[in-house]
Write a structure and sequence with these properties.
Strand order of the largest sheet of chain A: 2-1-3-4
Organism (chains A, B): Dyella nitratireducens
InterPro entries (chains A, B): Glutathione-S-Trfase_C-like, Glutathione-S-Trfase_C_sf, Glutathione_S-Trfase, Glutathione_S-Trfase_N, Thioredoxin-like_sf
Oligomer: homodimer
Number of strands of chain A: 4
Structural class of chain A: alpha+beta
Radius of gyration of chain A: 17 Å
Largest sheet of chain A: 4 strands, mixed
Pfam families (chains A, B): GST_N
Distance between the termini of chain A: 29 Å
Shape of chain A: globular
Order of helices and strands of chain A: EHEHEEHHHHHH
Largest interface: A-B, 43 and 43 residues
CATH architecture of the largest domain in chain A: Up-down Bundle
Protein name (chains A, B): Glutathione S-transferase
């Protein structure tokens, strides 16, 4: 069955690969699954036709026959569950890899997304400048804990997994701020993710949409 | 094998059931699984012994034989995967239920947690009072979308699932603000969750720890 995902017709990041379709493209590339992309214009995101697929009016969505999914975490978990290459076979190792998926999305990404709020959503507010270092320190606190756990390992728990795919994707969002580079082992971890051929193909595919 | 979870020795909410061990207790009760609880004193949360279980120094954790998990989302998914009652058998329905778990944690909870930041973490800052309505409006925006999707259904996708368990748990955190009650169908949805015998047992168990 054909897999169809949605992506921004024009990504707000101009092709830096930070929109969440890149994560899904990466997972599909790791799993060796071909896919089609339907580009959604900005003005169509909150239209009934798209809200039927994604109740929060965002991208990506995932369609495969009768199945419609949203939330990149759920989509990547679905891909990882149905194809080899993203989750270990051993039951306990698999549960731990899934734990890192949730950790990336619920413990690491929220403080990072606050940076978007303080800089852009509330960028014109009088408190923006004074709040920025507080937000940055909360990110540092979390990345410091993650850095300790990763130590000098290549990946978070044994071989590369969907947990690493998600964590690297989340950390990429904080790199432009300079905070990632304060943690050399995390910066190297992200670079290892980017060096994977599947990531490179995913990045190139989203860039091809946004660079034209 | 014995299941052991961790919880606060004294929950910051004084037993209102908003700490994340309640979600895990609820899932274990729905699955009919007995469990033990190890209470972690506040000063021990950042000690090496606890950080070995939870790299971010939080609760809950989950131990079962050799398996150690953290992140309530991952723990509940693990319980739901291994016992009946929390995920449908049909593959597509199962993928959609898992989608709602991720949606609760990555799309609905982050704006709600901003309320904790503006009120408590930054409660003494000069911008706190002026920021509060902005944060509240972002929560309203997301709950409005969720309210439309739920409509007059009892649960988010067919029968009660781990997706509803997670969404109800996340929405409970916003109820004290009064914002939940602006969406009557969501307030009724949360009340349906609380009325489940498994939730009542989970709530009572955490209250017994914190009310003494």
């Amino acid at each position: 069955m054909t897999i169809t995902i949605t992506a921004f017709e024009r990504s707000p990041d101009g092709g830096k690969g930070l929109a969440r379709d890149t994560r899904v493209r990466w997972a599909l590339e790791e799993a060796g699954q071909p896919y089609e992309v339907r580009l959604v214009p900005h003005q169509a995101m909150k239209e009934p036709e798209h809200l039927r697929l994604h109740p929060f009016g965002q991208i990506p969505t995932y369609e495969e026959g009768d199945l419609v999914l949203f939330e990149s975490g759920a989509i990547i978990f679905h891909i990882a569950s149905h194809h080899a290459g993203l989750l270990p076979d051993d039951a306990n190792a698999r549960a731990r890899a899934i734990t890192w998926m949730f950790a990336a999305l619920n413990s690491v990404e929220p403080p990072i997304l606050e940076l978007v709020i303080v800089r852009f959503v509330e960028g014109d507010k009088p408190w923006s400048k004074e709040r920025l270092p507080l937000v940055a320190d909360r990110i540092r606190h979390r990345l410091g804990q993650l850095s300790v756990r990763l130590g000098d390992a290549d990946w978070l728990d044994g071989a590369f997994s969907a947990g690493d795919l998600m964590m690297v994707s989340v950390l990429l969002r904080v790199r432009p701020s300079g905070i990632l580079d304060e943690f050399p082992n995390l910066a190297a971890y992200v670079a290892r993710g980017e060096a994977r051929p599947a990531y490179k193909r995913a990045f190139a595919a989203q860039l091809a949409v946004n660079a034209c």
